[in-house]
Amino acid sequence: MKRLIWAGAGVAALAIAGLVLWPGMSERAYSQEAAPRPGGVPVKIAAATITPTPVQINTIGTVQAIATVAVKSRVDAVIDQVLVKDGQFVKAGDVLFQLDSRTAQAAVNQAAAALARDQATHANAKRNVGRDQTLLNKDFVSHQQFDTDSATQQALTGTVQMDMAQLDNAKTLLSYYTIVAPLDGRVGLISLKRGNSIKANDVPLATINQIQPIYASFALPQVDLPDLRAAMKEGPVTVRVLPQGDRGQAIEGTVAFFENAIDTTSGTISIRGTFANDEQRLWPGEFLTVSVTVRDDPNALVVPSAAVQQGQAGTYVFVIKDDSTAEIRPVTIDRTVAGRVVISKGLSAGEKVAVDGQLRLNNGTRVQIVTTDKKPGDAS
Questions:
Q1: What's the CA gap between 124 and 282, in Å, rounded?
Q2: Which residue in 66, 59, 61 sits closest to 288, CA to CA?
C-alpha cells in the first residue's frame, strides 16, 4: 500500500513539473517560429515610377432613356387590332394599334362627295361668267346679270375651299384611328388588348423608351467642375460606364452636357453622358459605375495599390532602403487608376516599396527581397 502511495506521488510530481516546464518550452518554440529568417523577412517589391496616367473622376450613376413616350388614343374608339407585342423593338412609323375607323371613313367619304358636288357647280358658274363676258362686249347681256354670275362663281370658290378643308380634317381624324410609333425604341407592356373601348387621352396603351442612343446620368462634386469644363473646351470628354453585374469591358461614351446650376443641398452638379448602346447593354433604370477622364497627367508618380497600407495616422508604405531594411513612410494619395495609386507626397521616383509581406515589417526590419516575374509598377 505504501508503494502505491509513493508511486502516485511520483506521477503527480512529474505532472506538475511538466506543467511548469511546458510554458517555457512553448514560449521558446513560439519565439523561434516568429523570429525572422536569418536573411531577413521575405518581401516582394516594386519601384515607384513616373508614368503617364489619366486623371479620372469615379462615381455612381443611372441609365436614363433619352425619350419616353406614353402611347394614347386621340379619339374615342374600340381597339380593332393590336399589331405589336410586349417588349418588341419598333421603328418610327410602325403601326402599333388599329382602331375601328368605319365612322371616320364614312365622314371622309361624305366630305369627298360634297367637294366633288361643289367643284362641279363651281365649274359651271365659271363657264357662265366666261359666256357673259363675251356677250357683254356685244351688249347681249346686261351688266347686272354679269355681276350676279360673277358673285355666284366667287361664292362657289369659297365653298370649294371650305369643302377641301373639311375633307382634310376628316382625313386627319381618320389617321388617329391608326396609332403608330412616334420614335425608335422598345415597347413595354401592352396594357389593353383587342376589343377594349378606349377614350381619348385616357390610359396609355403602351410605353416606348428610346434606348439607342441612351443617357447615363450622374453627379459630380462641384470641385471637379472646373476640370470638366476645361476638358470640354479641348474636345469631347470620354465617359466609361459599367452596369452592376456586367463582367464585360467598360462602355465608352461622351459627356453630353452638365446642368446649369449646382445643387446647393449636396454641392454636386448633374451630368449626362451619351452612349450609342449598339449592343443594348445599357437599360433604363440600371445603376452604373462611372469614370470620367478629364485629362492626362504625364508625370504621375505611381505604385501598385498593394503597396499602400492604411493605419490610424493615415496611409503609408514600407520603403525598402539600400541596406535592405524597411522604413515606414507616410504618403498622400491623389487617386487610384486601374490598380495603381498615384502618390502626390511622401515618395520619390525610383524608391522601392514592399508590395507583399508587409504584415511582418516594422521600422528597421531587415528584409530579403523575393524576385517576381512582374514588372515594376504592376500590382502583385
A1: 66
A2: 61
Exposed (0-12), middle (13-18) or buried (19+): which is 360, by Cβ within 10 Å?
Answer: middle
pLDDT(229) > 50: yes
The pairing of beta strand 77-82 with beta strand 95-99: antiparallel
Structural domain range at position 193: 74-94+183-203
Alpha helices by DSSP H, listed for the chain, are 2-34, 102-137, 143-175, 225-234
Residue 13 lies in a domain: no
CA–CA distance, 187 with 71 (Å, rounded to integer): 10
Residue 276: which pLDDT band, with cuts at 50, 70 and 90? very high
Determine the Cα–Cα distance for residues 95 and 177; give it in Å rounded to an integer.
11
Residues 277 and 343 in one domain: no
**377: in domain:** no
**Does position 20 have pLDDT exceeding 80, yes or no?**
no
The answer to whether the predicted template modeling score (pTM) of the entire model surpasses 0.85 is: no
Q: Tell me what the pLDDT averaged over the chain comes to.
A: 84
